[in-house]
Write a structure and sequence with these properties.
Shape: elongated
Strand order of the largest sheet: 1-2
Order of helices and strands: HHEHEHH
Number of helices: 5
Helix content: 40-55%
Radius of gyration: 24 Å
Strand content: 5-15%
C-alpha cells in the first residue's frame, strides 16, 4: 500500500516513487523464484489518481523483476464530492480473488504410488501374514 497523495505531489513524488521501487525490489527478492501475482494499492484517490507515467515507472520496475503486478487506487474516505468514499475497494477485493484463483498448485495431489511401495500398507500385510 502506497500513499497516493505523496505519489501525486511534485515535492514528494520522486521520493515516494523511489521508496516504492525499493519495496518492489524487496518483495521480489523475498518471494523469488516463484513470485505470485502482486497487487499494489495506492490510497487517497479522492485527492487525485497517480499520474500514468508514475504508474508506468512502477510497472516497469516490477517487470524488471519478473513480477506480475496490478496497481489499484482506492479512496477509503473522501475530501470532496467528485470521488465517493470507498471508491475502488470493491474492485480491489474482486481483483484479489481473481489473482488468487488463477495459478495455484493442487492442494493434495493424488499419488501414483502403488500398494507395494507404501510402507504402512506393507506393514499391515506383514503383520496379518504372521498371524
Amino acid at each position: 500500500m502506497v500513499d497516493g497523495e505523496k505519489l501525486n505531489a511534485p515535492e514528494t513524488r520522486n521520493y515516494s516513487l523511489h521508496r516504492t521501487t525499493l519495496l518492489i525490489q524487496r518483495v521480489a527478492a523475498f518471494l523469488a523464484p516463484r513470485i505470485p501475482p502482486v497487487i499494489l494499492v495506492t490510497t487517497r484517490r479522492d485527492r487525485g489518481a497517480p499520474k500514468p507515467e508514475t504508474l508506468r515507472a512502477l510497472q516497469e520496475e516490477a517487470n524488471r523483476h519478473r513480477m506480475d503486478i496490478t496497481i489499484k487506487s482506492i479512496a477509503s474516505f473522501t475530501d470532496g464530492a467528485h470521488v465517493a468514499a470507498g471508491a475502488g475497494i470493491a474492485d480491489l477485493i474482486a481483483s484479489t480473488f481473481a489473482a488468487r484463483s488463477t495459478n495455484h498448485p493442487e492442494f493434495w495431489p493424488d499419488s501414483q504410488i502403488g500398494a507395494a511401495e507404501r510402507s504402512i500398507l506393507r506393514f499391515r500385510m506383514v503383520v496379518n501374514a504372521r498371524q
